[in-house]
């Protein structure tokens, strides 16, 4: 028996709607799920089934409309903007596009993640940024701008940036969709390795059937509902 | 200790990098701010220069106090008062000397083309001090002969090539108010709003040139005090003891009195201040455009930072710092060009346009205000950065 408070994520009958009146759409229908610390969970399903909405709700980027959503034991239903903002510092995010800051070098981009940590000097944070870039195999590209990096390299920088803030939960939205299959595979393996070293849980939304085997657990979603695991 | 802490806690200088990694945009911004700054420097410089020019002669007076008629409104409309008042003023123990000055406009005939033009004529007793100028006493000596005048070589060219002829050794004679006079010396005073040129002569010659002048009536009385006297106290006691047909003021208030007339009773101040305001508004529009499009272009990046856990306040801080950086790097070229243009104006118009510390700081504040206000307006766009939209 696991203690509820130990769960990284616990969702009980979460509902979400878009639009108003006639146009109102029930995108999440009584979703329930949980993730334990260090677990890697993959979420698949056809597009438009509500995966991304679920991810933004867990990432505290949207207001919860109905249901229980606890991240690190903190209730997000009815949480203030400030609570959500602070919570986000502990959640790493990797996007479909890399979303790096164009005006910053690879090293500076990663340091933007490390800068969120309190109590480290500038030098220490820069050293951490370098350390993470070494971990993702980009030690030779520290001062390159995103513009000069390949798609796979950019996604590696994005992973380093997300992990540099030492999150306890990593949310990834189709991180491999813009990459070719072998690069995608490498990125996911790297993500899993580094996350498990940090005992960071991962929730990854993906369409990519070639990477499903990295998951500890696989969830399928359809029409706003999570299907019972097979 | 504080600096150490600052160095330790500092973060990536995002505002600086956002600006400097887009050289074209920052160049446009600097050009716009500098343009607005130069416009403000020029307009305010002209305004102050014109006001200063209206008191070029006033500033040279060798006096601590000045007596004028209460009916005098400015240098172009001076009324007379009895000369006796100066003798009465001598009774005050702090007063060491006085000079009676006649001050009026007379018609000067250009000896080259014989056209006439109004010139400001000052009459005084040549054995008394009038102006603080090097070598003035020797020149004043020459006025003891009747019919001699000193001509201001900074007067406008329309009065004729007087100083050129005089310096070439020619005997320069012409007519003032229909009477023959001879130029016996050259002084440097400078034209003002009211007067295109100046001449100085003795009281005796002056009365001959303007026979309508009531006897014993003067327009300005200069009073010199003992070293270390309290000017304010003397002004107060003289105002009490002298009749009300005369007003006593310090030289400084006399200068301010004249400047104030041009500031408040003419549209000059308004026109130039409006010009400076136009520069300010143009600058605001440019900086707002730059910052707005900068925020707009980076909206997904700002949204990403919010998703990472940066709060809105720290992002607003980035925009504010961009405004601050722009104001500083835009001000520097504006200041330098302002200095250069002032030098150009001085050499070509003889107007006393100088870079004053107060004007330099006022314009810096205006530019700062312009940039920060524009940054504030551009921040509204940040509200559109929705981190939920970037997945």
Characterization of this structure:
The complex is a heterodimer of chains A (230) and B (391). With 230 residues, chain A is α/β, with parallel strands linked by helices. Helix content of chain A is 30%, strand content 24%. Chain A is built from 6 helices and 10 strands, in the order βββαββαβαααβαβββ. The model of chain A has no long low-confidence stretch (mean pLDDT 88). Chain B is an alpha+beta fold and 391 residues long. A 9-stranded mixed beta sheet of chain B has the order 6-7-5-8-4-3-10-1-11. A two-stranded antiparallel ribbon of chain B has the order 2-9. At the A-B interface, helix 1, helix 2 and helix 3 of A face helix 1, helix 2 and helix 12 of B.
The oligomeric state of the chains shown is heterodimer
Number of helices of chain A: 6
Supply the helix-strand structural class of chain A: alpha/beta
Strand content of chain A: 15-25%
Structural class of chain B: alpha+beta
Let me know the number of strands of chain A. 10
Distance between the termini of chain B: 43 Å
- Going across the biggest sheet of chain B, name each strand in turn: 6-7-5-8-4-3-10-1-11
The chain pair with the largest interface is: A-B, 34 and 26 residues
Question: Rg of chain B from C-alpha positions?
Answer: 30 Å
Question: Beta-strand percentage of chain B?
Answer: 15-25%
Form type of chain B: elongated
Bin the helical content of chain B: 40-55%
Give unreliable regions of chain B as ranges.
Answer: none
Task: Tally the helices of chain B.
Answer: 14
* Cα Rg of chain A: 18 Å
Q: Which series of helices and strands of chain A comes N to C?
A: EEEHEEHEHHHEHEEE
Instruction: Tell me the helix content of chain A.
Output: 25-40%
What order do the strands of the largest sheet of chain A run in, or round the barrel if closed?
6-7-8-3-9-10
